[in-house]
Amino acid sequence: MEVHHHTAPKREKHFKHYLFEFLMLFLAISAGFLVENLREHYVENKREKEFISSYV
């Protein structure tokens, strides 16, 4: 048995829609890099403190 899905008629995308999609992707990727850098900085500081305490 075949299932047919009826989609809404295709509308033309305007420039503002493309700009909004680009902005959302840019913000998501930038936020991901920012969070990764903060996490890496936290881990490095923790390792540094552990190394210094073990050295002393």
Model description:
With 56 residues, the protein is mainly alpha-helical. The chain is built from 1 helix and no strands.
How do you describe this structure in short?
The chain has 56 residues and is mostly helical. The chain is 73% helix and 0% strand. The protein is built from one helix and no strands.
Query: How far do the termini sit from each other?
Result: 74 Å
Record field, number of beta strands: 0
Rg from Cα: 24 Å
Mean pLDDT: 89
What's the overall geometry?
A: elongated
Number of helices: 1
Keywords:
56 residues; mainly alpha; 1 helix
Write the layout of secondary structure elements.
Elements: H1 15-55
